[in-house]
Amino acid sequence: MANALSRALDSDLWYSFSRSPVTVASAAVALVCVLGAVFAPLLAPHNPFDLASLNLMDAFNPPAWMEEGNAAFPLGTDDQGRDVLSAIMYGARVSLIVGLSAVVFSTVVGVGLGLLAGYLGGTTDAVLMRIADIQLTFPSILVALLIDGIVRAALPPEAHEGIALYVVVFAIGISNWPQFARTVRGSTLVERNKEYVLAARVIGLSRVRIMLTHVLPNVLGPVLVIATLNLGFAILAEATLSFLGVGVPPTQPSLGTLIRIGNDFLFSGEWWITLFPGIALVALVLSVNLLGDWLRDALNPRLR
Fold it and tell me: Looking at residues 50-56, what average pLDDT do you find?
């Protein structure tokens, strides 16, 4: 363990990370957001979604530092009397779960199809890449909205709330797979003609085994960078869908849902209901994107 830590601290990646103040600050902000979301039940002052603990008399309390503010609600309360700080921490959990799940889903689909297209070539490559090209002509958020609408129309209304989270994950994930597929396909075209792949063919290994055990490990570098960058987009896409009212159900509100709720009261003076969830969303997405930019540069051998 000590040797592994020592090697990590001596690596070029750690040197690049420690010499970039912006990256260190982004990592700190992302860590605070993630820890606050993961340990929300322990750290949040209140449980904003426990209906038995809500009191409408606490509605529209301003932040604690303002006149008429209440120290029990540091960032104020919303129209239902829910603590805004606690709602942000719980809402960030939903946003992170949806974002991570969507990225994992799109990574698995994109990498699998990219390997098939690059290694098999021919008709398989042509069909898969044309499908990817067609999908890339549409904005990802519109594809997610289309898929969400189709699923909602195909299922009975009483089933919507129970599967809403899965539908959002599927809609966001399936709209992002072409980026992974095209990247992996390009790397696979290079790797499939190298000597170690030819040697594996000569000894009689199957195509599936060659792709999974020989080609795949050598094409995962760019995938890690794309996945990190897409995490911020997935969180933002979920917030957009929830803001439009087609995302996660109201019983599991995310940051986008909190912003939508606060937007209804923005011009009546209760600005804190939408401002603080918006700041939390910007901080989370910006820190993840900055980390993705750093990782892309750090893993690029041409910039070393």
Answer: 77
Write out the residue range of the structural domain in which residue 138 sits. 98-298
On whether residue 43 sits in a domain, the answer given is no
Q: Looking at residue 122, which CATH number applies to its domain? A: 1.10.3720.10
- Tell whether 12 is covered by a domain: no
The domain total for the chain is: 1
Report how far residue 49's alpha carbon sits from residue 175's, in angstroms, rounded to the nearest whole number.
Answer: 31
**What pLDDT band is residue 8 in, cutting at 50, 70 and 90?**
low
Which tens digits make up the pLDDT trace of 90-117?
989 989 999 999 999 999 999 999 999 9
286-302 tens-digit pLDDT: 999 898 888 887 776 55
Choice among 36-50, 159-173, 223-237 with the minimum mean pLDDT: 159-173
